[in-house]
């Protein structure tokens, strides 16, 4: 306001306060409390309006401040190489699980609004919720709550395997939510069998020592040329995770989803119901071939 407006506002406030004060003074003994309360409220409201709409010096003014929103975290950022240490991967796994937990509430909302078929909407929302629960369960268990063993390396390997599961389930859940947002079906995007923390498994290679009936697994392009497995601690030194009994058999035998490279349905079903043996593949007639590569 200009100066004239300030004076008019001050006079109006004084009139309101004066009138209320006169009524408070004229009230009888039984109404003094209510009259005093009305006087106090009218005075506080008048002062607040004067501070908001005039330039009168009615106490220190706080400048208006605006905080820019923080940049959205990149859930697809590559994970660090833990080099056998679960604590090196834990911050990343916890962040990914937290991002999915914050976003999973979208599933119930989007399942009623997107244009996908009802059964696809329900499936994707269910994927997001189950993946969020499993990812959270995998990151909250410290090393001490793993399998009880006198060998610290065994417990560290178990913890590392759980954190890798948290990372993969976080990816499955976020991709399910992404499919709901973009209204596109969820496509297969398996991890690399040899190291699930590598790039996605867009190549197919023969699986040496795989369960009977499983011929090929998904692998990243680097491991398709020469495997660089995820190593976990053991009493005798680092070993590939798929050779360690300390890693949960559900994730180890499925290669975190690389043995059956679907859209995440097998990992979700495993998280719900426990491990299910992979279905037998069609006989190839030639058995397993050493790292026969097929790039898709």
Q: Indicate the overall shape.
A: elongated
pLDDT under 50 segments (min length 5)? Answer: 275-296
Q: Please indicate the count of domains.
A: 2
Query: Percent helix among the residues?
Result: 40-55%
Q: What is the radius of gyration?
A: 32 Å
Query: Which structural category do the helix and sheet elements fall into?
Result: mainly alpha
Strand order of the largest sheet: 2-1-5
Distance N terminus to C terminus? 69 Å
The average pLDDT score comes to 77
Number of helices: 9
Number of strands: 5
Strand content: under 5%
Q: From N to C, what is the helix and strand string? A: HHHHHHEEHEEHHE
What's the main sheet like? 3 strands, antiparallel
Structure description:
Residues 276-296 are annotated as: Disordered. The structure is a single chain. The protein has 296 residues and is mainly alpha-helical. The protein folds into 2 domains: 3-53; 86-295, no CATH class. Helices cover 49% and strands 5% of the residues. It has 9 helices and 5 strands. The protein has helices at 3-26, 32-53, 86-103, 105-110, 118-140, 152-182, 221-225, 249-254, 265-273; strands at 203-206, 216-219, 231-232, 239-240, 294-295. The strands form 2 sheets. Strands 2-1-5 form a 3-stranded antiparallel sheet. Strands 3-4 form a two-stranded antiparallel sheet. A hairpin with a 6-residue loop joins strand 3 (231-232) and strand 4. Helix 1 (3-26) runs antiparallel to helix 2 (32-53) and helix 5 packs across helix 9. The chain is elongated.
């Amino acid at each position: 306001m200009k100066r004239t407006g300030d004076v008019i506002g001050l006079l109006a406030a004084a009139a309101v306060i004066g009138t209320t004060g006169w009524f408070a003074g004229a009230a009888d003994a039984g109404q003094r409390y209510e009259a005093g309360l009305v006087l106090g409220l009218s005075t506080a409201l008048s002062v607040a309006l004067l501070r908001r709409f005039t330039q009168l010096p009615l106490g220190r003014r706080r400048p208006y401040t605006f905080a820019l929103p923080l940049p959205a975290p990149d859930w697809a950022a590559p994970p660090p190489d833990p080099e056998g240490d679960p604590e090196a991967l834990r911050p990343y796994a916890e962040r990914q699980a937290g991002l999915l937990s914050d976003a999973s509430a979208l599933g119930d909302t989007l399942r009623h609004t997107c244009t996908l078929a009802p059964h696809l909407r329900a499936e994707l929302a269910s994927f997001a919720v189950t993946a969020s629960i499993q990812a959270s369960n995998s990151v909250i268990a410290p090393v001490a709550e793993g399998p009880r063993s006198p060998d610290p390396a065994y417990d560290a390997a178990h913890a590392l395997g759980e954190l890798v599961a948290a990372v993969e389930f976080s990816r499955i859940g976020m991709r399910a939510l992404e499919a709901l947002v973009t209204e596109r079906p969820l496509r297969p995007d398996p991890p690399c069998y040899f190291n699930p923390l590598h790039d996605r498994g867009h190549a197919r290679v023969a699986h040496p020592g795989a369960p009977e009936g499983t011929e090929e697994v998904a692998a990243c392009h680097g491991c398709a040329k020469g495997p660089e497995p995820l190593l976990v601690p053991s009493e005798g030194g680092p070993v590939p995770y798929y050779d360690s009994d300390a890693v949960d058999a559900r994730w180890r035998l499925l290669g975190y989803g690389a043995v059956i490279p679907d859209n995440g349905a097998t990992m979700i079903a495993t998280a719900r119901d426990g491990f299910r043996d992979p279905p037998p593949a069609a006989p190839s007639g030639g058995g397993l071939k050493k790292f026969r590569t097929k790039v898709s």
